[in-house]
Here is the input.
Amino acid sequence: MNVSHCAMRGIRRAARGAAAACAFLALFGAALLPSQAQAEGFAVTEWSARGMALGGGITGGMVARADDATAMAYNPAGITQIPGTMAQAGISLAMLNFDISRNDTGTSVSSADQVFPIPHIYVTHQLNDRVWLGMATFTRYGLGSKFPNNWGAPVPGKTPGTFPFGGAALPASGVIKSVKLISSTINPNIAFKINDTWSVSAGVSYTWGYLTINQQYNVLSPYGAGHADARIHSENGYAFGWNLGLHARFSDQWSAGLAYRAKENMTFSGKTRFRHSGAPAVSNVMQTFMQSCDSRGKLKVPDTLTFGVMYKPLPNLSFEADLGYTVWSRYRNLSISMANGTPPYFEQKNWKDGWTFTIGAEYRPVDWLALRAGYTYETSPLQDDRCYDYLVPSNGRSYYTAGVGFTHGNWSLDLAYMYISVKNVNYPSFGGVGKVENGIIKEYAGKAHNSYCHSAAMTIGYRF
Here is the structure.
């Protein structure tokens, strides 16, 4: 009878594992949908509805809590708290906006309220009393902004000359019109329960993505205006990484967690295409050094270190405080080389490391309902005003979050809302115009303002 009972228990456990695998495969395609948005820098942290409601950011009020499958994104070592098999999947919607003003013209343009979907899926499975496996698919970084056509073109009589030509200086600009960085990360992990207090985890990750940049060049001359529309499509991006986690449950009241994700170097390859227009005398000259070609680039994604402590004064009430550290100093530049001698696309960065501070609270007035709220502050990675650009017009931000969770039997539903307030960026006036490189205006003196993000998330879960 004991042998038969053990065999039946093994069969049931295998069946539950197979069901989890089927659910994972059914939702896997949705989780690989292109996704983008941004937290500080070009990080994306809309990884789950519960994490968003508990403060968001790279810690999400979940580094020490880590007691459901979404812990795969925050601290996989915590999945040893989950018996059997659990699957969670969902989507976040982020609506971004920021306005850019130019001092030379006194005008302002908006990135327009753009909505980006950010899917996520997590599955955990307990192999035995010591070992757990987990799989995560989520988005760790991305960018998305778009401005009106030729919004950065020099204006006769208002924009000063910067490009030396024939003893004179011609107004010339090369300003971003749009940028899109899309990525998705697949991250399997294994967690090991050392004893009733300590657990550790290790994982590897593969990230795919692509980067598109639309840069518009404009020159004003006595012979007319010349225009070049550059579209950089780097579609074959990939990167590999790894991560470690540590979780400690000291008692029913106190828990702590520590997680590290290693840096990644995403390599891109693709095409750059130029479309020329305007006065032939000017356009023909521009075509001699701006030609369509193959291109290659590399994006350095920083490593992160997070730490959290959770206190549970009552069985239905918990608080967590988290600290995150992002090594943005690894992001020194964004450079895309061209194959045929066309000048490379180059943006100097030299960012500084950033800090994230998060607090979150969860209260269950009844067994089937959880009320959540949180706050996060992220410091700016921009080291000085020469680091400012239109790709990431951010200078530190605050997250205000709230949400609810429902449970019914083995099912769970989490909902969340997050508002991000972003500090203004003042673009300085170098030489009376802005940032100028090789005679080309890259950023105008002015400011980025009215910057915010509304996000909403839903996560559905099932315990097998």
Summary: Confidence is low (pLDDT under 50) at residues 1-40. The chain is about 10% helix and 55% strand. Residues 2-463 form a domain with the Porin fold (CATH 2.40.160.60). The helical segments are 2-31, 49-53, 71-74, 280-289.
